[in-house]
Amino acid sequence: MKTLLKYARTVNRLQLSIMTALVHVTIELIQLIQNTSIFNIYNINVRSFISFFIGAKFKDDDVKVTRRG
């Protein structure tokens, strides 16, 4: 039973680190996309556009991830 709990904690930490890495990659993508012309022509707010898909809320450089369900 103790090994099962250790395994669950390790998986939980791994999930958290993967989610953190995904958020950082998403921020890099946002900054990359904001420099492209399509989003500048149509004046689309890129952060709200991407946060709609991943369920995260962006506030300048501060990132808060909200869980759904």
Explained architecture:
There is one protein chain. A two-stranded antiparallel ribbon has the order 1-2. The protein has one domain. It is rod-shaped. The protein contains 3 helices and 2 strands; from the N terminus they run αααββ. With 69 residues, the chain is mainly α. β1 (56-59) and β2 (62-65) form a beta hairpin.
Keywords for this entry:
69 residues; mainly alpha; two-stranded antiparallel ribbon; rod-shaped
Distance between the termini: 29 Å
Strand content: 5-15%
Specify Rg, calculated over alpha carbons.
16 Å
Q: What is the β-strand count?
A: 2
Strand order of the largest sheet: 1-2
- Count of discrete alpha- or pi-helical segments spanning 4 or more residues: 3
Structural class per helix/strand content? mainly alpha
Tell me about the largest β-sheet. 2 strands, antiparallel
Mean pLDDT: 71
Give the total of domains: 1
Unreliable segments (pLDDT under 50, ≥5 consecutive)? Answer: none
The dominant shape is: rod-shaped
Please give the share of residues in helix: 55-70%
Topology pattern, helix = H, strand = E:
HHHEE
Per-chain topology:
Blueprint: H1 2-34, H2 37-42, H3 46-54, E1 56-59, E2 62-65
Antiparallel strand pairs: 1-2
In short:
This protein is mainly alpha-helical and 69 residues long.
